[in-house]
Design goal:
The complex is a heterodimer of chains A (about 200) and B (about 475). Chain A has about 200 residues and is an alpha/beta fold. Chain A has a single domain, classed as Aconitase, domain 4 (Alpha-Beta Barrel). Chain A has eight helices and seven strands. Chain A has a seven-stranded mixed β-sheet. The mean pLDDT of chain A is about 95. By secondary structure, chain B is an alpha/beta fold. Chain B has three domains: about 160 residues, Aconitase, domain 3; about 90 residues, Aconitase, Domain 2, CATH 3.40.1060; about 170 residues, Aconitase, domain 3. Chain B is about 30% helix and about 15% strand. In chain B, the strands form five sheets. Chain B has a five-stranded parallel β-sheet. Chain B has a five-stranded parallel β-sheet with strand order 17-16-15-18-19. In chain B, strands 11-10-9-12 form a four-stranded parallel β-sheet. In chain B, α2 packs across α6 and α14 packs parallel to α17. The longest helix of chain B is centred in the first third of the chain and has 17 residues. Chain B is globular and about 55 Å long. The mean pLDDT of chain B is about 95. Classes of the chains: A alpha/beta (about 200), B alpha/beta (about 475).
């Protein structure tokens, strides 16, 4: 996982609220057995017409979306299915952060584990961002701060351990494995207290 | 000790290491369910790192999401139509064999939707932590387990360490009083709850469904309620176990036996929320006032009583976009809306009592001309039970398409899809755009309403046919 400390990018805005992971990547693409190359299928049903042609009116097909690393979306982004293919597809397209007023629990966890930064902001900030697509924003993860091109600085919450992992490119599995002795001790007692069969 | 919630008791009993300001808790996982769609990349990670599955005995695998429901394809008389699905099936077979994980494979008589078979086997038990790379893992909370969906990276974490890093969620009491009226089911209750608290109302929380209405419910009904907790944004929903739970579990293949059964029940009886325990949030629902519910939009919170009209939210562009997708207008009555496909099945409503409800309506009646009624049992066991009880004959006599078990048209991964622009009246859990096929329009309902709508050929009030 690439360490993240700072993201400076234009935004891409998809203003819908309650964007579910079926929209981010439809289920028919989940038959893959790898993580790679899913960016092509990101928002497939909004992005391509039934004959597979790119819809020039959809934001991800416009020149201004190319190279953008920050996606701004309406309330409750990433709800629904637990498919980790959703952050994989967003990352493969080139996004490194998602900004909304609310981000669904499972999607948020999956994003953090893959180096996609989920940023929750207040209504006013969200409203401004939704109204100003293409705004150049500056995200400082260490400070937990989003700076708008107006100079307004918006602090955003980020769980301490997740921030540590993102900044240092640390894989959470390594941390869990460092606790295996404690897991073994717990398990010995737990297996006896609650026999499985 | 101060009064504690059911959630708090189960959480605390699984804390290997408590959370601190700097680090999340290390939470021990009792039961890890896996399937073919969200496990391949986790197995690849194990292989790349040279790791084993730490506790194969706490891991249970099946295939359900992309598997065919066509009998000839399931039993190998013809190839699986969807190539990529066939590849996933083969990959799970080889991964399970390589890592020593028990697999209920394609032709196993115990195969089925993962959230249906684990309870059926008695593998899901009160007080457990249960995870699966699937958001409807919340289903298992019906047993007083803490059960939630995880991503594939976390599937890998559980494989390697039987543990997860988790922040402790908040608690949300859903208090339900009153008797459900005739024709109003657990599905209508959970749709009402989602309509009331919203599709993100439970975000960051674990729901506990409480009160006399819940206590009166069968395990099948409780599973339907807990199943859709995620549709309210909550990763988990729980119901305290009671005699109905214990009666369901007794003599199930993996339930404890003899003296161990008695000891387990004694332990499980402690799994209730203590009098006076505080929740972070709560809502009160009067079940006696509910009606059959139907969704009209593109998320499960866009839901009304079946006799109602579609609300008007002038100026809400997202709302209008959803109605355009559905081909509906504000002010339209839901009764009488067109029906093309009816799907009865899924981890929400694919259990035997759901099929009984559908059969109750379909008995001696015919599916309306031009309507395709697809009935997919939640497991092969339920299929056999439904056939033995004569339900399958009722379905076939009515003109329904009776299949092998699986997730099927709930998410249309296996080729069971709804065509663009067509209306699907479905007992599943998600009416998202394109969920059941590109451009498909889904209306979520109970098995009663689905069956009644299949017979009438339009959205119908099931109470007319009961």
């Amino acid at each position: 996982m690439q360490p993240i400390t700072r993201i400076q990018s234009r935004t891409v805005v998809i203003p819908s609220s309650n964007i579910d992971t079926d929209q981010i990547i439809p289920a028919r693409f989940l038959t893959t057995t790898t993580k790679e190359g899913l960016g092509r299928q990101l928002f497939a049903d909004w992005r391509y017409s039934s004959d597979g042609a790119a819809d020039p009116a959809f934001i991800l097909n416009k020149p201004e979306a190319q190279g953008a690393e920050v996606l701004v979306a309406g309330r409750n982004f990433g709800c629904g299915s637990s498919r980790e293919h959703a952050p994989w597809a967003l990352l493969d397209f080139g996004f490194r952060a998602v900004i909304s007023t609310e981000i669904a629990d499972i999607f948020r966890g999956n994003s953090l584990k893959n180096g996609l930064l989920p940023i929750v902001v207040d209504e006013a900030t969200s409203h401004w961002l939704l109204e100003h697509p293409g705004a150049a924003v500056d995200i400082d993860l260490e400070a937990g701060r989003l700076t708008l091109p107006t100079g307004v600085r918006v602090p955003f919450p980020i769980e301490a351990f997740a921030r540590h992992c993102l900044i240092n490119g640390v894989d959470e599995l390594g941390y869990l494995q460092s606790k295996l002795e404690a897991i073994r001790r717990f398990e010995a007692l737990h297996d006896r207290a609650t026999p499985s069969e | 000790m101060s009064a504690r919630t059911l959630f708090d008791k189960v959480w605390t009993a699984h804390e290997v290491i408590r959370e601190s300001a700097d680090t999340p808790a290390v939470l021990y996982i009792d039961l890890h369910l896996i399937h073919e769609v969200t496990s391949p990349q986790a197995f690849s990670m194990l292989k790349a790192a040279g790791l084993r599955v730490r506790r194969p005995d706490r891991t249970l695998a099946t295939m359900d999401h992309s598997t065919p429901t066509n009998t000839d394809q399931v039993f190998g008389r013809v190839p699986i139509k969807v190539d990529a699905a066939a590849r996933q099936v083969r990959q799970l077979e080889s991964n399970a064999a390589e890592f020593g994980v028990e697999l209920f494979g394609m032709r196993d008589a115990r195969r089925g939707i993962v959230h249906v078979i684990s309870p059926e086997l008695g593998a899901t038990q009160p007080g457990m932590t249960v995870v699966c790379g699937d958001s409807h893992t919340s289903t298992h909370g019906a047993f007083g387990a803490l059960a939630f969906g995880i991503g594939t990276t976390e599937v890998g974490h559980v494989f390697a360490t039987q543990s997860l890093l988790q922040r402790k969620p908040k608690t949300f009491a859903v208090n339900v009083n009153g008797k459900l009226p005739r024709g109003v089911t657990a599905k209508d209750l959970i749709l009402s709850i989602i309509g009331r608290i919203g599709v993100s109302g439970g975000t960051g929380h674990v729901l506990e469904y409480r009160g006399p209405t819940i206590r009166a419910m069968s395990m099948d009904e409780r599973m339907t309620v807990c199943n859709m907790s995620i549709e309210a944004g909550a990763r988990a929903g729980m119901i305290a176990p009671d005699d109905i739970t214990f009666e369901y579990l007794k003599n199930k293949p993996r339930a404890p036996r003899g003296a161990e059964w008695d000891a387990s029940v004694d332990r499980w009886r402690e799994l209730t929320t203590d009098e006076g325990a505080a929740f972070d949030k709560s809502v009160d629902i009067d079940a006696s006032q509910l009606e059959p519910m139907v969704t009209y939009g593109t998320n499960p919170g866009m839901v009304v009583p079946i006799g109602a009209t579609i609300p008007d939210r002038a100026g809400d562009a997202v709302f209008d976009k959803a109605l355009r997708y559905m081909g509906f207008r504000s002010g339209d009555a839901m009764l009488g809306k067109p029906v093309n496909t009816v799907f009865i099945g899924s981890c929400t409503n694919g259990r035997l009592t759901d099929l009984e409800a559908a059969a109750h309506v379909l008995k001696g009646r015919k599916v309306a001309p031009g309507v395709h009624l697809l009935i997919v049992p939640g497991s092969q066991q339920i299929k056999r039970e439904a056939e033995a009880a004569g339900l399958a004959d009722i379905f076939k006599d009515a003109g329904a398409d009776w299949r092998e078990s699986g997730c099927s048209m709930c998410l249309g991964m296996n080729g069971d899809t709804v065509a663009a622009g067509m209306y699907s009246i479905s007992t599943s859990n998600r009416n998202f755009e394109g969920r059941q096929g590109v451009g498909a329009r889904t209306l979520l309902v109970s098995p009663y309403t689905a069956a009644a709508s299949a017979v009438r050929g339009r959205i119908a009030d099931p109470r007319e046919l009961l």
